[in-house]
Amino acid sequence: MKKFYITTAIYYVNDNPHIGSISEAISADVIARYKRLQNFDVFFSTGTDEHSQKIENRASNEGINPKVFVDRESLKWRKIFDKFHITYDRFIRTSDNDHTEVVRDFFSKMYEKGDIYLGKYEGWYCVRDETFLKDSDLVNGKCPYCGGDVQRISEDNYFFRLSKYEEPLLRYYEEHRDFLRPESRYNEVINVIKSGLQDISVSRKSFKFGINVPLDEEHVVYVWFDALLNYITSIGFLRDKEKFGHYWPADLHVIGKDITRFHGIIWPAMLMSYGLLLPIEIFAHGFWNLEGARMSKSTGNVVNPEDFVSRFSEISSIDYDVSIDVLRYYLSREINFGFDGDFKIETFFGRYNSDLANDFGNLINRTISMLHKYRGGIVPETLGKDEEVVDFVESKKNSYFVQMDEYNLSGGLDCAWDIVHYFNNYIQVKEPWKLGENKEKLDEVLYNLIEGIRILALMMNPFMPTTTRRVLEYLHCESSTFDGLKWGVIKSGIGIEKFSPIFPRLDKDKVEGRNLAGLKNGAEQEGQLKAKITYEDFDKIDLRVAKVVKAEKIDQSDKLIKLTLSLEGEERVIIAGIGKQYSPEALIGKKIIIIANLEPRKLMGVESNGMLLAASNEQELSVLTVDKDIQEGSSIH
Ligand code: MSP
User: Which of 87, 303, 380, 474 could make a disulfide contact with 523, Cβ separation 3.0–4.6 Å?
Assistant: First the structure.
């Protein structure tokens, strides 16, 4: 059986999944499912990228161990991938033990070979993108990729002799025109290589949460060097030679355009240095924007896919798993793989109503209701094949394979939709309702329609797995292989039950008036109001005025302050994460507001008995105090 190894990029564990990140996983999942239906032995790998300075910072801000932090955050990704029916074979985490072994082995071998050496790095670093930058890279003093702040660093680093691979890389690119697609990305990378490659830092010294450099444990391996190796760990490099030998090289790395250079230059050079084969192909897809603007957490311009689907399901009364399929469909159809796309609520509803409700949904509804009206729900016998119908379906099926093999997913769906339109038109032309007298003709038309729907459901299965599986189950047909894509598989004589419309048409005015805006707001908007709670819920919170009598920094944390408070004759300790904005001295004597009945919680080993209230946004934090000198212990209503 032919193998197919496909990967996504691994996601920064602390980020929240958004439409862009989930769309990459969906595209890879569609391809993995497509290949499985073609009977390939598929291995699909995805996961989380967990080592970095920013993770260490975030965990310290929360006062927890970085490993505890990444365990929690990684689970969040895994859960959302499960919800979206992403059929990964391994969910790799860079904190996995086998990965640590791989990274250390790789580093050592490259060092022994003379491809890694100790040097000094002087320059800029973007923590958000984990990227080393030169003066000339900066745009207005900011990171050219994310627009965020950069840090000046000067530290001893290990360097990878990337410059040595300039010629071999160029040669490889010239001999493998399809190594990196689309062509625009191929050209971009070729130009970068031609302009000259410099050696790059592959270790950091100023933080701890990462994989230690073998032989020099003061350093941790640079996060990109570490992360890229996930692709070989996932299939058993070092631990399972047979499995690795079977699946490597990867057939397809699906990545976003922003990380093309890491995958198109550093990764192949690392593999060349170690002596492993290069992946067959890297596909760099475009970016999703949101309503015309760049998705950005800092401006709140992001959509949380889970919230979006829940909200859509709620307002449309379509069940959750089918709603997931609707989003999977939209994300696959609306963007040309390789180009940017714009996520718009309008076009989402437009596509739902026109493609799913009117075209595909209606074809199914009309066919099933005619089958019941004229043949009691029993699939009729046909005497012969209608060559015209069969030829049309056959030719579109072939184009579908061509498009899908090129990873042009929207192109694949276009071919399926040509068949949908063909059969909707077929109903108009054949007018089954006028064929009452002509039994054979009516049988043939009904058979062709049912068979057409079956083939369509199979073709769309990688995109909308839940919905199409349900349709195929109604038709008592197989959904696990494309062997059934030939014409004439459905059995005459079987009974097909009536089922309610899978994609009911949504009244746009009703939805728009009440809920359309809410759909976007229901999506993740940072700083957005939370759902309403009852008076009883609010009444459970015991808010009190408390006076700060003592304040001290907690060792090893630049954020946490231990506050000793007086509260109606009682003394209590709380820990507050305000050390970056307040010095301990500035807090002494303040009358602050605390939640007094919160369960105790340990932060950096110290028990906190309550929580202080503070207002914050991205830039500032301000502790809430009282307007008059009111007695401590007073309650707040
Ligand atoms: N951790 C690195 C990848 C290491 S792979 C060895 C990383 N992580 S990421 O979380 O920032 O991005 C993960 C993937 O999501 C990338 O391929 C990235 O291009 C993709 N996307 C992030 N935002 C996106 C959009 N707005 N639209 C489409 N894909 C997007 O980079």
Answer: 303
Average the pLDDT over each of 75-79, 410-414, 430-434 and give the range with the smallest value: 430-434
Query: What is the CATH number assigned to the segment(s) 294-511?
Result: 1.10.730.10
Q: Kindly give the pairing relationship between strand 41-49 and strand 116-126.
A: unpaired
Q: State whether the beta carbon of 479 lies less than 6 angstroms from ligand 1.
A: no
Q: Model confidence over 358-367: pLDDT tens digits?
A: 999 999 999 9
Atom of ligand 1 nearest to the CA of 227: 6
Is the distance from the beta carbon of residue 25 to the nearest atom of ligand 1 less than 6 Å?
A: no
Residue of 49, 143, 233, 271 to test ligand 1 pocket, by largest number of atoms within 8 Å of CB = 49
CATH of domain 535-623: 2.40.50.140
Q: Residue 593: what pLDDT?
A: 95
Question: What's the 546 CA to ligand 1 centre distance in angstroms?
Answer: 45
Cβ–Cβ under 8 Å, residues 351 and 330: yes
Give the architecture-level CATH label for domain 3-286.
3-Layer(aba) Sandwich (3.40)
Compute CA distances 254 → 173, 281, 284, 332, 338, whole Å.
Answer: 18, 9, 6, 14, 10
Q: 130 CB less than 6 Å from ligand 1?
A: no
Using one digit for the tens of pLDDT, what is the confidence trace for 300-342? 677 889 988 988 888 888 999 999 999 999 999 999 878 999 9
Angle at CA 439, nearest 5°, toward 436 and 441?
A: 95
pTM listed for this prediction: 0.82
Per-domain boundaries in the chain: 3-286, 294-511, 535-623
